[in-house]
Structure formats: structure tokens, C-alpha cells
Amino acid sequence: MPRPIHLWAFLQGIGHYPSGWRHPGAEPEGVFTMDYYARVGRLVEKGRFDAIVFGDQLQSRGVRGRTPEHLAMPTLDPMALLSAIASVTQHVGLVNTLSTTYWSPEGLAERFATMDRMSGGRAGWNIVTTAHPDTAPNFGDEELPEKSQRYKMAAQTVAQAQAIWRERNAALGPSPQARPVFVQAGQSGDGRDFAASIAEAIFCSAPTIEEGIAFRNDMRARVAAAGRDPDAVRIMPGLSFILAETEAAAIAKDQAILDLADEALCIEYLSESLNCDLTGFDPAGPIPVDHILSQTCFPKADIGRALEKPAAIGLPLGKFASGYVRTPRGHNVFRGTASQLANMMIQWVDAGACDGFTLQPAYMPGELEIFVEEVVPILQAAGVLRTEYPGSTLRETMGLPRWPADMAA
Amino acid sequence: MTRSFILSAGIGDPALADPAMAGEILSAAEAAGVDLLLLGRNDSLLFDPQVIAAWAAPRVSRVGLVPLVSSRIAHPFHVARSLSAIDYLSGGLLGWAPVAQGGSAAQLADMVRATRALWDGWDDDCLIIDKASGRYLDTTKVRASNYVGTHYAVRGPVNAMRPKQGHPVLVCDAASPFAVPGIDVVIAAEGQAFPAAARRLLRVDAGADMAALTARFSAGEIDGLHIELTHPAAELARIGKALAPLTQGRPAAGTLRERLGLPLSLRNIHEEIA
């Protein structure tokens, strides 16, 4: 039997391209209505996805109090959205991102325990630490805890939450999964070790098949070194995609969506990514490297390296920002036909580059609809994607061990 | 205009955290003409009422969902986001009942003020969403709240919209009182003082003499009843029947705030306290 492909739908806001909300197939008003989420939930279930995944932030998007005018935001609380989607679906898993930096163990334990019950065992927790400095003042702090301290807090919070779930399960009877499926998304050494110690599924970026293989091999070795079974961990890299009848048409479609991002939107997007307000600079002028490096809170060495070449050739700020929106997060971006995408996915999984994909539609819900209508049947005909769900819990769907040993009590 | 009777019911049984049971209770509450369904109990929360309210949001057409929100574990930033989402998902049928759960009344009041300040950081008409021009948002209509209270400091703007109703209907249980202006509904037991609020509900048992209570509503003494349920399905059926003369023919459309005839705009109410 061929290796199964696991599918997650990363349905952040209104799609992954910053200009995606302007596409004719996007419904930006929908993200404030239940009808939209009911439709999307059922669509994902029709495509036999394992789970819907939502990211999260605990601050408004923008830079130091300046809110973007052209980016599609605000959004609504993902935990509430996923709980409501649970109500109108039967099988699809619901993975919510929740920060260990600014959630109390009691609050998050209660929230996930209730969600696991109300969804019949479909809850997953993407365990993150908060890295954005604008978050701190929303919780009465001046500054974030140091990075190493944040990871220490994360480990403690997870341990405390597990203790609370153990108590609750003993008192009330276990929730269907005993605790949510643990998901992790860290790429750094700290993040990978943390993931190796607890994660049952890992979200990552893998722009090429070679990088996917290297990451998966590294993670499996770390999981084994942590005394856990590498086959009980799913590696789910992000995959952005633009589909059309021909490869040339897909490339043209991709360009058309990118063209919807004018320079003002691109510079806002870049400003937000670097946490450095660049909207006051002349788009035709040089990239303000010194300003960026003095303002950004993210690793200066990495950002300096990324700016070196475009600055050296004198690329104007607006042009640099326009190029940046194409692959901001380093994920694989596929452009082509449905059968080309299906073949690529099968090839990656066969090569051991991943266990499945976290699909990131460029715009919503149009691009996801195309995937479900056109790619899903090809994967099913090839025998790599289920035609029916095997059970009802997320662990069953993911093919993961049912009861974590540490929660059996 | 005749005054509408308000029927409120509360359920704190952990059995509510079971989808089949919750579905039955919601249907029974709809059929009984319940206006406010309080989720959770004051003394202990055995589940997260906000998750249950979100789950219930797509299943209600008129019942107002009122999660208890405990200041013991809830931070205003999380509360503001969560309730905003549930208000949209329910089509504007959300209320909230802040409770101290062993914490102080001052902290509880501060949580309410901080949460409202975050909601008020966004104007109702801030979204443009014009695909042609590429303008999504009018940024002049978004502000950092910079709220500094006795227990919480929250800068904002919160990454959520101002709720569909502006502010969800604010319910105060006199057993866990808090002092903020603009309380929409207050629930008090017989003999207990009613804190200031737009509507006053008397807390009674499911077995109370509904005919006698109806007379007190007619006399203008109370605006309705709050009934704590122990056997929800059976009690809701009985209560619905007993109170049918009062509950039938009331408005069934619109947001919860509109249906209860409560003021629509509460913007910047927190500033009145400063």
C-alpha cells in the first residue's frame, strides 16, 4: 500500500497572499460570518483533510501602533472559530495555536479540555511562545521575557496543563483524546528539541524536496534521541499553491494576484514582517538598511544577510518589497496543474520529505475549492488519500497512538 | 410599547460539555422561549463556557448565549477577542456574565472595563474592504486603548473587531456583583438588592409558582425571571408551558440587544469612570 498523505488546511484569515483578499474568488467579508466558516469546514471535510489549522497572534497586526490600511485584518479569535466549526462538522481535526507566554495553564487547559469534548476528540494544540514585542503591553508588561525564558515557560506550562488534564480526566471521565494532539512549529535548535520532546505533529517550512528530507531526517533522529517513536510524529510542511489548466496559466494567475499587491501594500507587508515601519520611505529610494537593522526586533544577522544583495545592486525599496511578498515565509510555492501538484505531493511523501502537507491557499475560499474539486480525486485515485475517515478523533485520523501513555491515568 | 418579559435560565452541570446533551438543551431552550441561557455556575467552572457558547453559536436562532467569564482565569485581552468572535458567529446573540469566582469585586469590575476599552478601540464602520481600490481598513477608526486600571493594563488595539452588538449584553449576578455603568441585566435572589441595571430578573427555582411571579412582572416589580436548571430538558418544557402567556408573541428577530430593547451604542462607556 502506498504511503498515505496527510492534509492540513492552514486557513489563516482570508488566504496567504497579502493581496489574496482582492482576488475575485476571495470573500473577505465572509470571515465575520458563520455561513463562511460552515461552508469552509464542510469543504475541508469533503476533501478528507485531517485538520484545519489556525495560527494566532496576541497583538494587532501592524508596526508599533500603526495599523495597515491595505492588509486584510482584523480577524476573529481562532479558538472560537474552531469551536463553532466543530459544531457543523463531524470529522475534521481542529488545531488551534495558543501561546504559552500569555496564557495561564488553567485557562488553556480548561479551554482545550472543553473543546476536545465538544468536538468529540478533534482538538489539537499548536504550542507556541510569543515573540512579538507588541504583545507585552497588552498584558501589562513592558517587554517580553527572554527567548530562553520563554521556552522554559513553555515546557512548564505544558507540564502544568498535562497535570490539570490528568486531574480533570480522573474527576469527570476522560475527554475523547485525554488531551489535545500536540503540534509544534519551531525551526530553531531550541524549537526542534522542544518539538522532539513533545510534538505529535510538526509544521515547518521546506521550500525544496531536499530540504524536506533533511528536516524530516533531523527531526526523526531528535525524536528517537528523546526516547520517542519517530513513526508517531507527522511532519507537515507548509505548501502554498496556485492552480490552473496549464502551468503557464498558473504562472500568469500567480502574477495577476501578485499584481494586486501595489507598492503601498507590499511595503506595509514588509514593515509588518520586519516590525519596522517603512511606510514613510520613498518607494523609489534605496532600502533603508541601517534604519531596518536599528529598529527590527528579529535576528539582525539574518535580516542583514537578506538585505545585503538587494541593497548592493541598488534595488529600490518598493521593488524589494514587491519581491518579498512572493515567498515571505520560505515555504514551497507550487504553480501548475492539479495533476502536477498531486504528482509532486506523492513524490515528496515517497521520498521521505514529509508525511503530508499544510496547504496554504493563496486566497479563500476559491483556491481551496479548486484543490478539493480537482486535486483530491487524483490523490484518492492514486490510493494515497482516504475516501472515508477512519474514525472520529484527530489521533485516529492522523494515525497516531490513541492514548498518550502519560495521560492514561 | 408594552414591556417584554425576559426569561433567563442557567445551567452549570458538567453534562453540558457533551455535544449530544448540549444540543438537546439548546433545542429545549429555543422551544421554551428562553432569552438568556447562562452557561456555567458561579462557584465552580467545570468547563469553559466560552468554548460552549462558540460551539452553540451556529445552533441558535433566538436564544441569547451568556457564558460566565471568570476573572480568576480570564485576561481582558483574551476575553475581548473570544467574545467578539462569538457575537459575530451567533449573529449578535451573545451576552456575558462576568464572575469573580473567589477573586475580588474590584478586579472583576476592572476586567469588564478593560475588555470594553479594547472593544471600543475599533469603530463600527472601520472596514472598507474595497477590492478595486485595495483599501481594506480606515485606520483613522482604530485606536490603542491604553487602558490602565487597578488590576489590568492593556494597550491594544485588540486584534478582533468590535462585536456585532457593539458590546455583548452585560449580565450581572448580584451574588458576584461588580460596579460598572451600563449593566444591561441584573439577576438577584428574593430579598437581595438589585444593583443598578436596565433590566431586573428575579432568581427562582424551577418549581416556583409561575402564576404568582407573573403578577409581579405585571406590577412592574421585575422584568423577568432567572431559573437555575437541574434537569434542563424536563424543566425547560414545563417552564415554557407555564410562561407561554408571557413569552409568546415577543419579537424573535434581530440581535439580542435589539430584542430586549437595550441601548445599542455603549461606546466609550469606560471613560465615564475616569
UniProtKB/TrEMBL annotation, chain A:
Q: Cross-referenced Gene3D superfamilies, in alphabetical order?
A: Luciferase-like domain (3.20.20.30)
Translocase: present as a keyword of the record? Answer: no
The record's section on InterPro entries has: Diverse_substr_monoxygenases, Luciferase-like_dom, Luciferase-like_sf, NTA_MOA
Q: Which UniProt keywords apply?
A: Flavoprotein, FMN, Monooxygenase, Oxidoreductase, Plasmid
Is the keyword Flavoprotein assigned to this protein? Answer: yes
SUPFAM superfamilies per record: Bacterial luciferase-like (SSF51679)
Judging by the UniProt lineage, the source's domain of life is Bacteria
- Tell me the ranges covered by the Luciferase-like domain, including all copies: 22-257
Q: Name one Pfam family in it.
A: Bac_luciferase
Q: Which PANTHER family match?
A: ALKANESULFONATE MONOOXYGENASE-RELATED, C2H2 FINGER DOMAIN TRANSCRIPTION FACTOR (EUROFUNG)-RELATED
Membership in a protein family = Belongs to the NtaA/SnaA/DszA monooxygenase family.
Protein name according to UniProt? LLM class flavin-dependent oxidoreductase
Q: Which organism is it from?
A: Novosphingobium humi
Automatic annotation (TrEMBL), chain B:
Keywords, sorted A to Z: Flavoprotein, FMN, Monooxygenase, Oxidoreductase, Plasmid
Is this entry keyworded Oxidoreductase? yes
Q: Write the lineage as a comma-separated list.
A: Bacteria, Pseudomonadati, Pseudomonadota, Alphaproteobacteria, Sphingomonadales
By what name is this protein known?
LLM class flavin-dependent oxidoreductase
Domain of life of the source: Bacteria
A Pfam family this chain is assigned to: Bac_luciferase
- Residue ranges constituting the Luciferase-like domain according to the UniProt record: 17-180
InterPro entries noted in UniProt: Diverse_substr_monoxygenases, Luciferase-like_dom, Luciferase-like_sf
